[in-house]
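Sanity check

After download, print the first record. It should look like this:
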Amino acid sequence: MLETNLHFISAIVIFLAAIVPIYLTLKLKNNIRKLTLILTIFILTHAVYHIVGFYGLTLLGEGVFEPLSVAVLIFFGIIYSGFAKPKNMGVKNSMVVVWNPGTLLLLMNSITTLLLLVALGIFVWLAVRSRNIRSFQFQISIFIIIWILGEITGILQDNGIIVLSALHGDVGLEIHVISMVFFSMMLWLRFYYSKRSGKKMIEDVADASG
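Expected structure tokens:
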């Protein structure tokens, strides 16, 4: 499948996923509202990555918006874990100038993968504390693992370590689409069951580890 088609599908899927946290952000209050707001920002930032990718702006997408979305996901994990309070967290911008676009993409892809590993570490730790495979922590860990597999596959394919025929297309991005579909389905299913059972869609860390 063409790269533009994969970005288009991912953009649609991720926007569908955004509906749930946007709705919850408007409806809920207090700390859970802060969590859903940060989750919304992550989803929308990642949606921008797919939109600019659809228009062929690969350098902007993979060099800025994808790692930025992962950084927001890490921020979400930190706030969710209770390690820091939103008011104490700041955002610092930095600029790296690399004249070779190919080198820059490789660097940013590696940075994205490293950031994803940090995010995975946070949510795996929270999943271990929850001791429940049905918890939000465990399910988002699975989502990140699939995403990481896509990133690693893409890096190996771009560097010629994995050689596939043209019929296979961008396998890394195809795996990425799978991760976005999983994430969207996860949010909608959790939203459905929370409405049906009256339970929280995202468990408190204290409740999950209690």
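If your output differs, re-run the checksum step. Summary of this record's structure: Helices lie at 3-27, 30-54, 58-81, 101-130, 136-158, 171-197, 205-209.
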